[in-house]
Design a protein that fits this description.
single chain; alpha+beta; Alpha-Beta Plaits; four-stranded antiparallel β-sheet; globular; disordered C terminus
Length: 225
């Protein structure tokens, strides 16, 4: 498989997107979302020290404890800044820590989840649509706008009906950013340190919500024509 025309640079941040083949659903329910959520935080580590098949068989409490211990070691391929899972695709804001880290992370993640999904659904073949997309973040302004775009995705796509549902959407980093979730898996400082407080970031995100939803509606109508 040919390499990327533009290499991914260590210590730089990228907006990464992967989508199901033909935009087909890649998450069929809570079990699927939970599987890839944990896999993301497992595969961000360079040497987890435990095979994923063994990790996946552990009870939930032990899996969470294991991921917390990996986080404390900070031996990362990538740092995960924001994350949002949708029925047929997912978004990540990633900082590459090791050379080749994003590509290795995404390869391990997509291959692992595809094996799980195909086994579970008795299917064969590719699950994801070609190479993942990656756009380099070049300014702080772009970083903030992309974080907002990612966090608003469930609302602009009508996965959730209102902003109250958005702030507790369980397959997004937004609840952790807003202090609703007490987990600490995301590198939030790069975003939140640019705001006076969490309330200011929430306002920054939510003030754009209806506008972004309208843009998504217009894009859909244009594609349908």
């Amino acid at each position: 498989m040919p390499g990327r025309a533009i290499p991914l640079i260590t210590d730089q941040v990228y907006h990464v997107l992967n989508r199901g083949t033909g935009s087909q659903p890649i998450f069929g329910g809570k079990r699927d979302y939970q599987r890839i959520w944990e896999a993301i935080f497992y595969y961000q580590n360079q040497n987890p020290g435990l095979s994923y098949s063994h990790f996946a068989r552990l009870p939930l409490e032990q899996r969470t404890d294991f991921l917390n211990k990996l986080k404390a070691k900070s031996n990362f391929l990538v740092e995960i800044i924001t994350l949002c899972l949708l029925p047929n695709h997912f978004h990540l804001l990633l900082k590459q820590i090791k050379n080749g880290g994003i590509s290795l992370f995404m390869s391990n993640l997509s291959n692992s989840y595809t094996r799980y999904f195909n086994t579970k659904n008795k299917r064969i073949g590719h699950l994801f649509q070609g190479k993942f997309k990656a756009v380099r973040i070049e300014t702080d302004e772009q970083l903030l706008h992309v974080s907002r775009y990612i966090h608003l995705n469930p609302y602009s796509s009508y996965i959730v009906k209102n902003l109250g549902q958005l702030e507790v959407y369980p397959y997004s980093s937004l609840p952790e950013y807003l202090g609703i979730s007490k987990s600490s898996f995301f590198q939030k400082g790069i975003i939140l340190n640019q705001f006076k407080n969490v309330v200011a970031y929430k306002k920054f995100v939510f003030d754009q919500a209806d506008y972004q939803r309208k843009l998504e509606e217009l894009k859909y109508l244009t594609l349908e024509k």
